[in-house]
Structures are given as structure tokens and as C-alpha cells.
């Protein structure tokens, strides 16, 4: 099979990816969940005109001149309205958040008055509406303030609470099962034997999937046998995984059994080679509702492919409005050679000049096994297939990596 362009591969991964079923959850569980429907306010906020300051509620016409004297006829505190009417020459002591009493149309702050028993003298002229939060200044009942597809922030939760919603309709979280393969892998903390390496891919993949709002299932490390790999795939199906991520075994060597196991389980493969660097030996297929992404074993290739393909798929299944990564413009910090037929994703550090210009500095060594350079990078610098030589100072495009 010929190498598939990255854009075509991403389209294949996202084909038919619709948001998962809706569920209703309590407000305190809704952080970073994705709204399944628009949410409208159940109340007007504030429901009545409220004082924005501590002072006196007055009729502006009675306090329009300096040294006007008014009689204090009552008090308003938050949650304790004044039942009477403010008439000519009268004032009501009011505190922040108190309901402005009938008849009053301004608040004079306490610093602009002199109090003497039940009398106050005005030292700053009142202005109609001043220091009053009018009813509905924040929002009105029926206003749609949170839209379908929103990934809820802590600020959104405060707004939903203010709108009087104890529960919210959200999309179900995608379940992502992660299966590593390879006899050479040992878990962190174990001294590797001859030819062995410490398993690292899964820790990044679990964190990346969870950061995007997915629940993850750890299927561990399968031995390089068809039986073990097949057992892992079947466990993913039995767990109800929406996405199965495999790492390693995606190439064509005698011990790369993932594709063979996937096909034996009936998974229809849409591609298994992409015109990109790093990450050429990546696979994708489907088995019923379960989508499968076979990542390369090299840690940088695994992460870059997961970032480019798994993340948008999770977002699509979650019902997110923004699915694709946004490309940012930057300036090259050093010269780059011409590119070949594969789309390049160079690990790069970022610097920002005093004038705000973003500088992208590709790391010196781009080998797909170098974890230290991946950890130090803040972006992937994108180079199109057959891109000509680029000089330092020229414009480039980067994808910002999670902070």
C-alpha cells in the first residue's frame, strides 16, 4: 500500500465519528465534560435591582446638590429587603447586594455622606442609576449562555450554578483502551535485561487521553505472540472500549503481529502506512463500534501520532466543537534543509521576543527514540512534503504541545 497523506489519514480516522450518548450528571462532576445540549438560564440575574456599594439608597433628585440633607427611614442588607417606599427627602441605609427599595433610583456611597443619627448630609451629588446593578444585567431567564459542544471550565460551572442548574446534560466520556506489545518491554523500576527497554509509551498515552476527557483502560503489555496480542484485542472489546490504541508491532517484521491479530479478529484496516515523519508505520481500522489506532513503538513516533490522530478522535466522540489542532505562525530560529516526500513534525522549543514574535527552534536531534528532546519541546514544527530549504527568520507553522 502506498503511503497515505496525513490529511487523508486523519479524515479516515474521523470518518463517522459522532458524539457518544448523552448522560445527565451533577454539577460537581461536570468539570471538563462536554455539553450535549444548549443550556439556558432558569432565572434572571440579578432578579431585582441591587446595590453595588455600601451606602444609601436615595431619590437622585433629592440628592442632586451638595449638602442636601435626608432622613434615614430604614436599612437593607443582602437577603433582607426593605418593605417600604423611599419618599421625598428620605434615604435607606443599604449594603452591597441589597435590593434597591421602591422609590430609590440611585445609591450614594457612604464615603460621600456625613451621618448624624437618623440624618445624612450629601457630599457628592447623586446620579440616577449610579452604583445600582439593574435587574438582568448579568443574564435573563431563557438566555442560552452555555452551548452544545462546550468543554466546561470552572467558570462555566459557576455560571451554570448561577443559572440554577444542579445537573447538566453531557456526552459520555470515550473509553480508550491502551495495549502495548513487545517482549523487550519492562515496567519502570525493573532493571532491563539484555536487549530490553523500559516501557514509557503508555504513561504518555494515558495522560494525553485523560487530558482530553477520556476514560482509559490499561491492558498492559502483551508478549510478541499472536495469542497474547489477540487476547488483548478481545479484552478491549469486552471492556466496551470506544477506541483501542496499540503501541508497537505496527511494522512489517516477523515479530510485528498487531496487524495480523487485528485482521484475524475481523478489523477492517483503512491504512497502515502514512507519509509522515515520525510515525510512518501507523495503522487504523474498525471492529464494529470500536475504532483502532495502531501506533509505532518508538516513543516519539507513538506520542506524535497519538497527538495528531487520537486526540482529534477523542474530541469528536466527546462532542467537542473544536476538534482539530490549531496551527500557529512562528519564525524559524535556524535554517532547515529541504524536505522529502513525508510530512515532517519536528520537535521544537519556543521562545518569544519582546515584540511578541514566536520563535521556533527545532531540536538538534530528531531521532524518534529520543524522549529527552520530546519532553523539552513545546511544539511540533510542521514541514510540508517536498518543502524547499528554509532559512532562519522565515515564517513557519507550529502545533503547540500540551503544557
Structure in words:
With 403 residues, the protein is of the alpha/beta class. The protein has four domains: 6-20 and 172-318, 3-Layer(aba) Sandwich (Molybdenum Cofactor Biosythetic Enzyme, Chain A); 22-45 and 138-171, Molybdopterin biosynthesis moea protein, domain 2 (Alpha-Beta Complex); 50-133, Molybdopterin biosynthesis moea protein, domain 3 (Molybdopterin biosynthesis moeA protein, domain 3); 327-400, MoeA, C-terminal, domain IV (Beta-clip, Beta Barrel), CATH 2.40.340. 19% of the residues lie in helices and 30% in strands. It is built from seven helices and 26 strands. It has helices at 6-14, 154-162, 201-211, 226-238, 258-264, 299-318, 371-376; strands at residues 22-26, 39-40, 50-51, 55-58, 69-76, 90-94, 106-109, 113-116, 119-122, 132-133, 144-146, 167-171, 175-181, 185-186, 197-198, 215-222, 243-247, 268-271, 276-277, 283-287, 290-295, 327-332, 343-352, 358-362, 379-383, 395-400. α1 packs across α6. The longest helix has 20 residues, at 299-318. The mean pLDDT is 95.
